[in-house]
Amino acid sequence: MITLCAIASGSNGNCYYIGNSREAILVDAGISARQTINRMKQQNLDPTLVKAIFISHEHADHVCGARVLSKKLMVPVYATRRTFSAMYNNHKPLAPRFFEPGKEIAVGSFSIFPFLKNHDAAQPCSFRVSYNGIHTGVFTDIGMACERVISELARCHVLFLESNYD
To answer: CB-side exposure of 61: number of CA atoms within 13 Å?
Structure first.
């Protein structure tokens, strides 16, 4: 079974939970660590199951809680090198792990496929997260969907779509 939860979505912050009974990942950490953990607990989600945080791009509403949340949960933060370089220093995680768009990453039983999208950021990505044959898309800040987004959308069974960016 897979558990999905939009912990925060919109201009005030973004954070998406994808998990199972043993482990989970977060996509984005755009609210404080305290808020993220409190909201997870309100939804009966165990923060200790989180194994990694993936960052879509450097805007504060996607990354402002990543540094502290990573330290509290003792998990890595994944971002592209260009995204990491464009982050404000006080948002930068202390020990980032870098990924290349278009190359799959394994975290526990999850497979995360980051891909480039159109947005006004250094190297913005969306994600397709796969577990046990279920493909979940996390597509944030979608104004007009580019070909990559449309192609990946067709592969997803479930979708988090945040489209306040125009």
So the answer is: 13
How far apart are the C-alpha atoms of 82 and 48, rounded to whole Å? 29
User: Looking at the predicted structure, is the pLDDT value of residue 70 above 90?
Assistant: yes
For residues 155 and 139, is the Cβ–Cβ distance under 8 A? no
Provide CB contacts within 8 A for 74, sequence distance 6+: none
Residue 85 has pLDDT above 90, yes or no: yes
In tens, the pLDDT along 1-27 reads: 999 999 999 889 999 999 999 999 999
**Nearest partner of 61 among 14, 117, 5, judged by Cα:** 14
15 HSE (CA, 13 A, CB side): 28
Say which amino acid occupies 80: T
Residues 6+ apart with CB under 8 A from 109: 20, 22, 23, 131, 132
Local confidence band at 166 (pLDDT 50, 70, 90 cut-offs): low
